[in-house]
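Sequence, please.
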């Protein structure tokens, strides 16, 4: 009998919890295709917040009306939560310029002329691409829909500079050290001389940077040599 009473109590408890949770949920109304003002009123009436996430071109939805809503209509969410909406800019009549091969400055001018803005500029090292030239863009000129009016571009920085590991030159004869650097196409910035006890003449006693340091193409090494 005690077990039955406990079971009934547990069932009643979880039933009450489920009722309490469901009582806090509301059904998201459909606002796609509505003007922003009535869409906002409908969502507020359902005790939901409105979050406008931007605009996009949409040939199927007139300008100024809601193009997208998330969560979708019919979803159940907690009372007071937000619904994200994107407002339509209508059908796009101005084509997206093809920016491939242009510089960032030229791309910015082309976009401004067509009513767009330059968005995020990312960079990449490419062996065969011209330095400072746009490699690709998003959205592409063929895109049928556009979120907002910003165009992101990927720009080439040309071939990535080779990296060399600075050899250990300390203790080497100067001529041998210079030969090792010439082999790796590492220029010598300066060679300074000083008197050092118990060190053979023309021996490298110090190098900057130290052995093992990664050098980019064009970076140089300084040497101190005994005289």
């Amino acid at each position: 009998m005690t077990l039955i009473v406990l079971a009934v109590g547990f069932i009643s408890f979880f039933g009450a919890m489920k009722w309490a949770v469901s009582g806090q949920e509301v059904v998201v109304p459909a606002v796609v295709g509505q003007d922003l003002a009535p869409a906002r009123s409908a969502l507020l009436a359902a005790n939901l917040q409105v979050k406008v996430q931007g605009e996009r071109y949409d040939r199927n939805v007139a300008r100024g009306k809601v193009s997208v809503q998330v969560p979708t209509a019919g979803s159940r969410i907690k009372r007071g939560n937000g619904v994200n909406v994107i407002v339509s800019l209508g059908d796009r009549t101005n084509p997206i310029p093809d920016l491939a091969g242009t510089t960032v400055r030229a791309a910015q001018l082309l976009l401004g002329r067509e009513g767009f803005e330059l968005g995020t500029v990312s960079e990449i090292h490419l062996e065969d691409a011209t330095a400072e030239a746009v490699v690709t863009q998003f959205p592409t000129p063929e895109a049928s829909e556009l979120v907002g009016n910003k165009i992101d571009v990927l720009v080439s920085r040309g071939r990535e500079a080779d990296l060399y590991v600075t050899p250990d030159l300390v203790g080497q004869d100067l001529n041998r050290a210079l030969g090792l650097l010439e082999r790796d196409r590492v220029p010598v910035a300066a060679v300074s001389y000083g008197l050092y006890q118990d060190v053979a003449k023309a021996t490298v006693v110090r190098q900057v940077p130290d052995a093992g340091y990664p050098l980019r193409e064009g970076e140089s090494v300084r040497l101190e040599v005994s005289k």
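Residues 59 and 91 are 4 Å apart (CA to CA).
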